Amino acid sequence: MASLQQINEKGKETIVKTINRISLTIALLSGLSAIFYLFVQLYLPAILVSIVGFLFLVTYFLNKKEFHALARIISIVATNVGVLLFSSYLGFNSGFYLYLFASPQLIYLLFRIRQKKLIYFCIGINLLTFSSIFIIDAYNIVQSALIDLKILHLLYSLNFFFSIIICFVLIAIFARNNKIYIELLKDVNLQLENQQKKTYY
């Protein structure tokens, strides 16, 4: 039978595993993206995406060393800074802002529901990042790289595809985590009911 303490411990363990899975998935996608950028001779984006992938690998190793809070911070920072840099360099039409639509799911997986202030703060950062990207593009604050229109369309398609994959991965992990919590809570409720019956009789 599970206890409330065991549920809390399981919750912490689940969050750590979640960060690890997400970090490895994004690191893998970053590696594939870097190969594509090298192929189309966009060297700066290849370097930037490699750095983002490396940061997510760092979060994985930080989790292994039990620096969980730092791993979460790096995940959020790497996501927002990476999207901002890519969108500024390659332009709004490159579709890098699409990854921000997966960010709320990531935030809800990284933090517990009762950590409302942290969740709202992180969502606020996402909104600020999106607003910054839109303003930078609308007012041409940063001169975007001159890219062939075909490559730009291909970039948008790839970013759309990868952002959808990340969304589905996050949804699958979220559903799995919820199933674990529900099963543990059912176990605790059953235990409490049995104790009440014993006390009553």
CA-based gyration radius: 21 Å
The total count of helices amounts to 6
Describe the main β-sheet briefly.
none
Strand-and-helix sequence, N→C? Answer: HHHHHH
What fraction strand?
A: under 5%
| SS-derived structural category | mainly alpha
Fraction of helical residues: over 70%
Catalogue the unreliable spans: none
How many domains make up the coordinates? 1
Average pLDDT, rounded to a whole number, is 85
Q: Shape from CA axes?
A: elongated
Terminal CA distance: 21 Å
> Based on DSSP secondary structure assignment, what is the total number of beta strands?
0
Describe, in plain words, how this protein is organized in 3D.
By secondary structure, the protein is an all-alpha fold. The protein is about 80% helix and about 0% strand. It has one domain (about 5-200). The chain has helices spanning about 5-40, 45-65, 70-90, 105-110, 115-140, 150-200. α1 runs antiparallel to α2 (about 45-65), α1 runs antiparallel to α6 and α2 packs antiparallel against α3 (about 70-90). The chain is elongated and about 75 Å long.
